[in-house]
Amino acid sequence: MTVLRTDTATPGNGRFSGAGGGAVSVGQAFKRALVSQCHPTMLFAVLLPFLIALVGAFLLLYLFWTPLTDWLRAEVSHWDMVNQADEWMIAMGLFSLKIYLIPVIAAAILLPVSGILGLAIAAVFVMPLVLRHVGQREYASVTRRGKFSTAVSVWNAVWVSAAFAVGWVLTLPLWLVPPMAVILSIFWWAFAFSRMMRVDAIVEHASPEERKLILDRNNRGFWTIGLICSLLNLLPPAWIILPVFSALVYAHYGLDALKRLRQDNVIDV
């Protein structure tokens, strides 16, 4: 006979190993995601966020490239450090720094915006397809108890996208410090992957109480997955599959955490 445990585990009491497994659980999630990604349905799903991001990039470049570069040119003219470096390079017979700096900054602003758009599309529209695919095959015993899943998913995608865009633009000046360009890129994409995907991975199956518990206890694991995905994001070919592949990784990790949470709350007598 089985009975439900009434003293639901709380953070720190040691009863639930939700983050449990740590790197082992994260590694299992990536292995399972690789297998799931090779399924024809998931290969086809790759196209939607990639095409959205590609079209978004073309539209952003077409609509905003000229106004943005004109604005940047006016702003850069007030940066004494850039002006001095530009004058020195021209005096040395090299090239004008501004000619190359302004297009690079403009691309660094517009292209990540199209990327976060593709990730948001994957989170809101592709994740349900991912959950149906992996849920029916590997997590059939995990019943759906989510409430207002669509509203929660859309709101989460909106605020994460806005925070990413604002944070990315505000920290762009720090890119002038050589290591910060890579560090900030990794951090902001880890933030985007982690905050965007972890909610959508469990929003349909976990109740609000379960969702809060899982997010709190597996925070390190979710961030670890986001960090790995952001490192992969440094490789341009990975941009094609990362929105869907990251959704698969988070789905496996989140649903497995939910499954273990419910098992932990049931005792065999």
Show the helix and strand layout.
Layout lengths: L1 E3 L18 H15 L2 H6 L1 H30 L3 H12 L5 H42 L10 H22 L7 H25 L5 H10 L1 H14 L9 H23 L1 E3 L1
Antiparallel strand pairs: 1-2
Helix pairs in contact: 1-10, 3-5, 5-6, 5-7, 5-10, 6-7, 7-9, 7-10, 9-10
The number of helical runs is 10
Largest sheet: 2 strands, antiparallel
Q: What is the H/E string?
A: EHHHHHHHHHHE
Structural class: mainly alpha
Strands in their spatial order, largest beta sheet: 1-2
Oligomeric nature of the chains? single chain
| First and last CA, distance | 6 Å
Helix content bin? over 70%
Overall pLDDT: 82
Give the DSSP E fraction (strand runs of 2 or more residues).
Answer: under 5%
Q: Unreliable segments (pLDDT under 50, ≥5 consecutive)?
A: 1-20
Shape: elongated
Radius of gyration: 22 Å
* Total DSSP E strands: 2
Explained architecture:
- It is a multi-pass membrane protein.
- It is found in: Membrane.
- Helices cover 74% and strands 2% of the residues.
- The protein has helices at 23-37, 40-45, 47-76, 80-91, 97-138, 149-170, 178-202, 208-217, 219-232, 242-264; strands spanning 2-4, 266-268.
- The chain has a two-stranded antiparallel ribbon with strand order 1-2.
- The chain starts with a strand and ends with a strand.
- Mean pLDDT is 82; it is low at 1-20.
